[in-house]
Specification:
The protein is α/β, with parallel strands linked by helices. Helices cover 35% and strands 25% of the residues. The protein starts with a strand and ends in a 13-residue tail after the last helix.
Length: 506
């Protein structure tokens, strides 16, 4: 995946050269005195939003000066990739770049539609306020109309061109002003208000912090560009290793730009250190360093997840040399049943296994009947590998109802040891603490399954008043089928007499 991170001397030189070239245009008065070729070249220069802003806009922080884009704003605003993610520290000019680039696009292209989104309606109105401020203090001769409803704010730009018209009676050619299709910028909150527009360009401000940002991005924003093949740029600082921001960061089809607090030339090391004194590590990473880290309360770190997952097929090996352990996490309401098959690995000669090696993680389609899983799938597995090669079958016995009361008998009739597990608060605390310990000590390996990785990244923890580890997912929409099944199979395989329930998880 393409990632550009940090300011370089080459970036600074390239940006400063643009300002120098426009200063030359002004000093030589090429807009009025230049020949046709020179005027054409000047027009082509103005297709660059950095040069355009320098030519016509004022610095919002000092209206006596021109707008001089920072090198990172320059490189982001000029990138033409179809999907772009501008990851940056707070208050170094993300929203500023968003407004300048999209205003430039609307002014230079008659008939286009630009959609800008924010988390809330007041924030979306603030984007339009910034755009109006750029126009108000600019040196442009422009005409626009404002539209405002309860769900969106729009600004329309009228475009004109001079066309030659021949008058037969006078035998002369005159220039007439012809109106072209209007362009528009629509500012909306992260709701269905964005539906119904075909967007030539989309800018999403602080998308990683939207409520259900994944749904909004994939089902509302992206479809706006299906017909237009338009560009989508996302702006925001990291919100940890979670949600749509983390997914876009790992998406190979999205180009990433990452810049931190000290990349802004007006910020100092002293300011950075002063700001950091009152922030947590996670807050520093997000707001100052533009780093994706596991948010406070995250159960597993990125490093732990990467170390435990391997790029290999999630299947049982054709030849089994030692008995396997099987664990089922049964579907409840909207969950799905997950089956894990693993074997222990002993590094030393102690009684208990030292490591857990998971061969297969199978997710059954939603609505798959328990009877089909037990009487068809499990029986076939037993027949294929033989009862002697199955050490134990376990399952989460919490809340599955009376339909599985005879599951133990069925399993034992096959000559296999059965182990129902109650995920009570105390027992779940013990099981997940063991899972965390294995992950920290790099004593567990699993095949990479995207849905599993997503569920692991969403796990959060807190301590109950009695000191128990309470593991939960970030949102009620998130599932934890894979984590529960992995933790369950670990509890079957690793069984020390005194489980480390007092381990501190950070």
């Amino acid at each position: 995946m393409t990632i550009i991170s940090g300011i370089t001397k080459e970036m600074e030189k390239k940006t400063n050269l643009k300002f120098k070239k426009w200063d030359e245009v002004i000093s030589k008065n090429l807009l009025e005195k230049g020949n046709d070729e020179q005027k054409k070249e000047v027009y082509m220069m103005l297709k660059d939003p950095t040069i355009y802003a320098y030519a016509f806009f004022k610095n919002p922080r000092d209206l006596s000066k021109r707008f001089r884009a920072y090198p990172y704003q320059d490189i982001v605003m000029n990138d033409k990739s179809i999907r772009v993610f501008f990851v940056a520290a707070n208050q170094i000019g993300k929203s500023e770049a968003l407004c300048v680039e999209n205003l430039h696009f609307a002014l230079m292209n008659p008939g286009v539609t630009v959609v800008l989104t924010s988390k809330t309606f007041p924030q979306s109105k603030d984007l339009l306020r910034k755009i109006k401020s750029l126009l108000q203090y600019s040196s442009l001769d422009y005409k626009y109309d404002i539209g405002d409803t309860e769900t969106k704010t729009e600004i329309y730009f009228r475009h004109f061109e001079n066309v030659e018209v021949y008058n037969k009676k006078l035998d002369k050619t005159f220039y007439e002003k012809k109106e072209l299709p209007q362009s528009r910028i629509i500012c909306v909150p992260a709701t269905e208000a964005a539906l119904g527009y075909a967007a030539d360009k989309v800018g999403a401000d602080e998308l990683p912090f939207y409520d259900d940002g994944e749904h909004f991005y994939k089902q509302i924003l992206v479809p706006r560009t299906y017909t237009t093949k338009g560009q989508i740029k996302v702006y925001g600082n990291p919100n940890g290793q979670q949600g749509i921001g983390w997914e876009l960061y790992n998406d190979k089809g999205t180009k990433k730009f990452i810049f931190n607090f000290l990349d802004c030339p007006t910020n100092t090391q002293e300011e950075f250190e002063n700001n950091c004194r009152t922030l947590t590590r996670e807050q520093i990473d997000s707001t100052m360093l533009a780093v994706f880290t596991s948010p406070e309360g995250g159960f597993l770190t990125l490093g732990e997840r990467k170390e435990m997952q391997e790029e290999r097929s999630s299947i049982i090996p054709s030849i089994i040399t030692q008995p396997i352990y099987i664990f089922f996490d049964w579907a409840k309401s909207r969950d799905r049943t997950v089956r894990i098959i693993a074997t222990p690995k002993k590094v030393n000669s102690e009684d208990w296994a030292d490591e857990v090696y998971i061969h297969e993680m199978k997710e059954y389609p939603q609505g798959t009947k328990y009877t089909d899983i037990i009487d068809v799938d499990l029986k076939k597995l037993v027949k294929d590998v033989g009862p002697s090669m199955i050490a134990m079958v376990g399952w989460d016995n919490t809340g599955v109802g009376r339909g599985l009361e005879d599951f133990t008998k069925r399993v034992e009739q096959l000559g296999i040891q059965a182990m129902p597990v109650e995920f009570s608060l105390e027992n779940k605390s013990r099981i997940y603490t063991l899972f965390k310990l294995l992950a920290e000590q790099r004593r567990i390996k699993i095949p990479y399954v995207r849905e599993c990785d997503k569920q692991l990244s969403m796990l959060r923890f807190r301590r109950s008043s009695r000191g128990h580890l309470q593991v939960h997912h970030e949102s009620e929409r998130d599932r934890d089928d894979f984590p529960d099944a992995i933790a369950g199979v670990c509890s079957l395989i690793i069984q020390p007499e005194n489980p480390p329930i007092s381990v501190v998880i950070i």
